Amino acid sequence: LAGRMGILNRAVFWGLGAVLVLLPLAYGGVEEWAIFWFEAAVFVLFTLHLVGTGLRRKVEDLEEKWEGVRVPAVLRILLVVFLVMAVLQLVPLPGGLLKILSPRAYDTYHFLAGSGFGEMGEMGGGGWETLSLAPGLSLHELILYIFFFLFGYLVYKHVRTRNDVIIIVHVLILSAVFQTFYGLAQLFGGT
Question: pTM of the full predicted structure?
């Protein structure tokens, strides 16, 4: 089991390197399919990390303490505030509360209802609307930020030694140099 655990850890490490190299190739990583590729790759890498963690727990005694690092309280508070604000953007709220929290969103919904674009609360049902005027886009961005967090977490967990850091830095530098020359070739090549 210990051998499999090492193989999975190295697979996650090299997978992170591959994501760092390949993501910018897709038009700077801003196309929807490239973002999906990033999210799918991080999902696979995180799944491998969880499997490796499960194998490690089988190798070690289950009673040993978890090898976590204490996160400063300020970071925990900021993470909780971020998640609460993100969820608050997506949860339908009654019209009165919406008017208190975001008079502009309330006025926008009220204006649209008065202009014949639907009734107030049509999407949320019975006068309930979200703070976000585009809840689908807000959800999309929330999912993207969650995957950014997971990517950072995987880097934190799998780039542990000085040699790992050197490898990742070299990967980033080589990727940046390649992207620079590729971009210059496109610019001066007329494409």
Answer: 0.73
Question: CA–CA separation, 23 vs 29, rounded Å?
Answer: 5
Per residue in 62-111, pLDDT (tens digit) is 444 445 556 678 888 998 999 999 999 999 888 888 889 888 888 888 78
List 94's β-bridge partners, or say none. 128
Decide if 124 contacts 94 (C-beta within 8 A): no
In three-state form (DSSP H/G/I as H, E/B as E, the rest C), the secondary structure along the chain is: CHHHHHHHHHHHHHHHHHHHHHHHHCHHHCCHHHHHHHHHHHHHHHHHHHHHHHHHHHHCCCCCCCCCCCCCHHHHHHHHHHHHHHHHHHCCEEHHHHHHHCHHHHHHHHHHHHCCCCCCCCCCCCCEECCCCCHHHHHHHHHHHHHHHHHHHHHHHHCCCHHHHHHHHHHHHHHHHHHHHHHHHHHHHCC
Distance CA 80, CA 82 (A): 5
Q: Given the DSSP bridges, would you call strands 128-129 and 93-94 parallel, antiparallel or unpaired?
A: antiparallel
C-alpha separations of 6 from 12, 55, 93, 133, 136 in Å: 10, 10, 48, 47, 40
- Record the tokens describing residue 119, joined without a space: 């009734």
